[in-house]
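Pipeline run #58 for the internal structure catalog. This entry was flagged by the ingest filter as a single-chain record with no existing model, so it goes straight to prediction. Upstream metadata was stripped on purpose; only the residue string is passed forward. Reviewer on rotation: M.T. Logging verbosity set to normal.
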Amino acid sequence: MMKTKAVRLYGKKDLRIEKFELPEIREDEILASVITDSICMSTWKLANQGPDHKKAPDNLKENPIIIGHEFCGEILEVGAKWVDKYQPGERYVVQANLQLPNRPDCPGYSYTYTGGDATYIIISKDVMEQDCLIPYNCDTYFEGSLIEPLSCVISAFNANYHLKEASYEHKMGIKEGGNLLIMGGTGPMGLLAIDYALHGPIKPGKIVVTDMNDDKLARAQTLYPSENGIDVTYLNVRDEIHQVASLRDIVGDGFDDIFVMVPVPSVVTDASELLNPDGCLNFFAGPQNKAFFAEINFYDVHYSFTHYVGTSGGNTEDMRNAVKLIETKQVKVANVVTHILGLNDVAETTLHQPEIGGGKKLVYTHKKIDLTKLANLTEQDELGKILSKTQGIWSKEAESYVLTSYPEI
């Protein structure tokens, strides 16, 4: 029998770290280690809503689930059904958005033994049957934990659409050479969106990124300057009385694609005003409020063929494309990591994500590490000395140091 330590959800804001035995795997299951998990704001929403969350069991108190869905690790033991497809020792990532035909279950939301905030897990047969257990062939684990959020960005870009001239058919994806606006775009998902816009298969002509925090905008501009012939502009809209006019001035027109990364009704309304004819607004932000409404311009929907779409998670193809981008080092997902921690601090960090701020919080599940902000490390600390080589960006060397030098949980 394998013992595991895991953070489990028992109810609203009731997260507990526990040690317990995993059962023997069945022939259609897989035993695996988890090395890293990246904390998502969706898990904060899950923890707040508890059994009211659409993906959580109604009986969480009696049937707690392991949280965390952005995880990477190694396969340890393979059930008989899967021995021709998976091998012990292989590294893996999981597409958590299973899209089961008859229930909303997903790893990190719904399963007793399948989630990322654990040392060892049993991967449910649902994951393999949906072809959502994906081989990962990189020399870091942390990049594997950032594949799931990158796949969500890829999904969003794929979901945008524009008309094919003189037809009712749509061409999927952002507009080649068009104006792209990312509103509230300096959080981790916004940074990944900028990265993908700069290095993905369809290149816009101009990118404009807004936020209300000078430090976050400055960091984003340092990480993602204009390149590949794409002009990137960053605008602080905190004191902008006429945000719409200011944004139009930057591009001399409106925008062909807009991603709204914050669930604020006025931002959605401003985005609606900024759409060019045949423009597409993607509401990327996931609101907690089930009655979230915002005004949009229906005159333009009718006469200018503006489009509206929303995406939540990616599919397996998006996940595989994200794996390729990271394996070929076309994107730099390390840029979004701002904190590290061990399993011991997952519950508190998850519940206080908004107050903590910053980007991605990277969990080393087998380690005992209090939440550590990378920007606070100095060269007096060995880890800080390592990060000074990469201007504070998380790295393979930093990960190796944590895995070999930090205490076990």
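catalog note: The longest helix spans residues 147-159.
catalog note: Residues 221 and 234 are 7 Å apart (CA to CA).
status: ready for reviewer M.T.
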